[in-house]
Amino acid sequence: MSKLLIHGGNKLFGEIAITAAKNSYLPILAACVLCEEQIVLHNYPNYTDTQSMCKILSSLGANIDFCDGDLIIDPSSLFSWGIESDLACQVRSSIFMLGALLGRFKKARVAYPGGCEIGARPIDIHLSGFKKLGVKVEEKHGYIYCNAEKMHSGTVLLEFPSVGATESLMMASVLLNGETRLLNAAKEPEIVDLQNFLVKLGAKVRGAGSGEIIIEGVKKLHGCEFTPIADRIIAGTYMIGTAMCGGNVLLKGVNPEHLRALIDKLDKTACVIEAKNDKIRVTSDGKPIALGKVETSVYPGLPTDLQAQILALSSISEGSSMIIENVFESRFKHVPELIKMGADVHVKDRVAFVRGVPHLYGASVCGMELRGTASLILAGLVAEGYTTVSNIRHVDRGYKNIELELASLGADIKRIDD
Ligand code: UD1
Fold first, then answer.
1. Residue ranges of the chain with pLDDT lower than 70?
2. Per residue in 161-192, pLDDT tens?
3. Domain match, 152 and 294 both
4. Taking the CA atoms of the chain, what radius of gyration do you get in angstroms?
5. Are residues 285 and 320 in the same domain?
6. Which of 10, 118, 311, 418 is surrounded by the fewest CB atoms within 10 Å?
7. How far apart are CA 229 and CA 21, in angstroms?
8. To test the ligand 1 pocket, which listed residue (163, 188, 237) has its Cβ within 8 A of the most ligand atoms?
9. What is the pTM of this model?
10. What residues pair up with 20 in beta bridges, in sequence order?
């Protein structure tokens, strides 16, 4: 098992081109199942989560090739509509396959999904949406069986604007007869990206980015080429890292509007941010001021996927912060590890009270989930002395060689084997 060894204290300088968003790529990979012609997806982010999703597609019979950073998928040879538990438990996004398989085969069998341990993460909103559209759903022996022979278009009001449920229902509806309306739909940029991809395949979908998505069923989809959006969470992680370490970093290929909530929060408090076209420049003296009250929420609010990194920033900011996690109920697993490094944090239910300390100290810490592990890495970059971060398989799910990117900015960080 590899670990990261970090010697804290270096400022960050340089440029990083932000890769495609894993959270866009994963549902788009699932949506490929809906089509029977070749699809080329550019800028493949080669992380363990996307690799797991490719394995799932292959297990269903799709042919997948990699060429110059692109992924070439031929879903015409798909023969299976079932995903076994050993594959489904590797990546939570296997659940998106339900909607896509229903569109293609009118039936699906998917084992309960894996993914980060950040709460109960039920799939009731996905399933009640399917049922509302006439799908027969049965849950037994760890598998979900869906039969869509009587599936029809209609209106689904989501109880909560779940990203995954919105994506599942969009995919399940594109090949139905008639018009389906999703109300209280999620508005995240990754939903808009999925809509753009489906439209490129020949689907009729509109409204993504607002709370109402309208899908007019079409008979068949065709192949296409598509470039998914850049990863706003990776960009946000490096913005926060620069605010913590000090320095001057230019992030390229990213849409600043996707990070508006973070930019508004950090600018002039933790650092100075200039955002223009597809670039964000972060300049920091490494002496951030506390952000005060910070609440995660659905888009366009502050993403829950940046909460852990913001908490690491708050732990070395001058003053106190109150961080409220509104999206997932169990997303403070990084806190005990940050406390080992000297952070002053108290958690009560969904709220973390953080009093900034002048220094964190190097320690042996252990990653518990994807974004939490990223926050420990950022803490290691500013800590006095050496930090080792173990269990880094979590961070490899969503960041490609994070240590190489940070080292290219001047951080003293390397991967070591046990
Ligand atoms: C997606 C992202 C994840 C991000 C999250 C919120 C991907 C691959 N993952 O996850 O990185 O943190 O959006 O922006 O895109 N819920 C239910 N029942 C359901 C579905 C969700 O109760 O059927 C609850 C969840 O437990 C959670 C909240 O709704 O508390 C948000 O979940 P959701 O938006 O569905 O997140 P994911 O799609 O799992």
1. 114-120
2. 999 999 999 999 999 999 999 999 999 999 99
3. no
4. 21
5. yes
6. 418
7. 6
8. 163
9. 0.96
10. 230
